[in-house]
Amino acid sequence: MAASSVLRLVQWKCDAAVVSANWPSPTVAVGSRIRFFPRRSQIGSSIRISNSGSPYWPSPPKSAAAAAVSSSPWLMLPPSFDEETEKMTAYNFYSIAQDKVVTIKKPMTLSDELLDDDAAVVGSSHGWLCLFNRSTTFDDLILYNPLTRRHIELPSVNIYNLQGNNIGFHSHHTQWVTRVVISSSTPDDQDCRALMNYNVGNRLAFCCPGHTSGYWTPIGETHLKLDDHLYGRNYEDFVYSPKQNLFYCVTAFGDFEAWDLRDPHSPTMTPVILSSDKNNYPRAASSEEELNLKRSCVSRKYLVIDEETDQLYHVRRFVKDTIRSFSMLYYNSPSDEVDYEFSNPYRTVGFDVHRVDLEKGELSYMDGGSLDGLAMFVGPNYSFALRASEYPELKPDSIYFTDVFSPPYWDNGIYGGHDVGIFNYRDRTVSSCYYPVDEVSIRRIVPSPVWFTPTTTQL
After folding, report:
1. pLDDT tens digits, residue range 370-380?
2. Can you give the residue ranges of the KIB1-4 beta-propeller domain (predicted)?
3. Which of 307, 184, 450, 243 is nearest to 194 (CA)?
4. Omega prior to 264 cis, within 30 of 0
5. Cα–Cα distance measured from residue 365 to residue 185, given in angstroms and rounded to the nearest whole number
6. Helix (H, G, I), strand (E, B), or coil: what is residue 328?
7. 3-state DSSP helix/strand/coil percent for the chain, to nearest 5?
8. Residue 437, Cβ neighbours under 10 Å: how many?
9. DSSP code of residue 432
10. What is the spatial distance between Cα 33 and Cα 412, in angstroms, rounded to a whole number?
11. What is the dihedral of CA 414, 420, 425, 428, to 10 degrees?
């Protein structure tokens, strides 16, 4: 066991100042849907709209050298709806730097047919949201930049083309797009690639957003054979390295792959062989109590990249339900029976972080509580790390996390979407980030919050 890795059974502490100022008002029922609505008094001065109707951007770039300007991440909150028409009116974000809610009106130029109010956010990377509109005939995927109000339609996922054969995306099982990541903040460039997870088995497919005529190309193995049994390959996470022009992927079985998608007609995969220390992988623990706690948890793997240094990290998250199993975390189909009748919400209790050394082929455990001053951001979004020294509002050696599970609007569950907070890797405690973390105050949040990186790009 790792000698200096100490995980206290998480000491839940709540930043009362943030929670009292920003915790949303009670839920408002809209038909069969339940959504959170921020209090108008909370938003107030945090909303600034220019004469053109576009959102106010603090300290806009003055020089052409700043082609893309970013601030610290925003937490995307549930949107606002008109109580009479039941139509979505605005996107809401919590700005860590300003400690305020920023509201951006939904543009009237996006028709309801193109972008349904119930479109699911299935991706957030490089300043763009990916919205999955399942209410349309073709199951549209749309890239949308809420700051510039630009949108780019991705190829439909109703059917995709594989070596000249049209193959139905849907079979007799309901299938989902679970995550979409783009390789740059300029998706209309010819070199940009979009990689997605789809199906209940988390398979991979990619497309070229900048190509006028495109389709999704499935890649990767669909199954893994173990002891004469076939299991879904299940790609858990993937990130893009702009310096190496590679997508790095990790599977549920701990396999690592590097994908070169520069030639869309000839995608190539290179297996990444990484050795690890059995004393801290797949679980690191400094005591038998900590090890037993982690064994009782469901774990979720992330690949986190620091794009400034091109350093890759393997992050394992441990989520604990003190009452029952975590089968509900892997909700895949509306036909699944999801039972929320238990007294305590599931919650994140810890993280293990390993530095990926591609040259040595090693996973090196980051012991001693240091993340080299990084603030990491994980959730349904693109997983990334920032230097906290460059963003004074961020906490160094911390992991900002959002829920891995997003409950549907129409269910009547007690919890879901609530597992949001900041994990201090040094002292192994969890503090609040906009939403409270104490059990008494935790409530269901629909849709689940995701991290968004606000960027403006010259057009």
Report:
1. 999 999 999 99
2. 93-424
3. 184
4. no
5. 31
6. helix
7. 5, 40, 55
8. 24
9. -
10. 9
11. -30
β-bridge pairing 398-401 and 374-378: parallel
How is residue 307 written in tokens? 């794009």
| Single-letter amino acid, residue 95 | S
E-strand stretches of 82-173: 88-95, 100-105, 120-125, 128-133, 140-145, 150-154, 159-162, 165-168
CA distances 233 to 164, 169, 175, 198, 301, Å, are 24, 17, 16, 12, 14
Tokens of residue 283, six digits: 């679980």
pLDDT digits (tens, 9 = 90+) for 17-60: 232 223 333 333 222 233 333 332 333 333 332 233 333 333 33
Token duo for residue 347: 């919650």
Q: Can you tell me the distance from the alpha carbon of 130 to that of 118, in angstroms, rounded to the nearest whole number?
A: 13
Q: For residue 420, which of 23, 1, 8 has the smallest C-alpha distance?
A: 23
Quote the CA–CA distance of 373 and 381 in Å, as a whole number.
Answer: 21
Q: What predicted TM-score, i.e. pTM, was given to this entire model?
A: 0.80
* Cα atoms in the Cβ-side hemisphere of radius 13 Å centred on 192: 22
* Cβ proximity of 330 and 337 under 8 Å: no
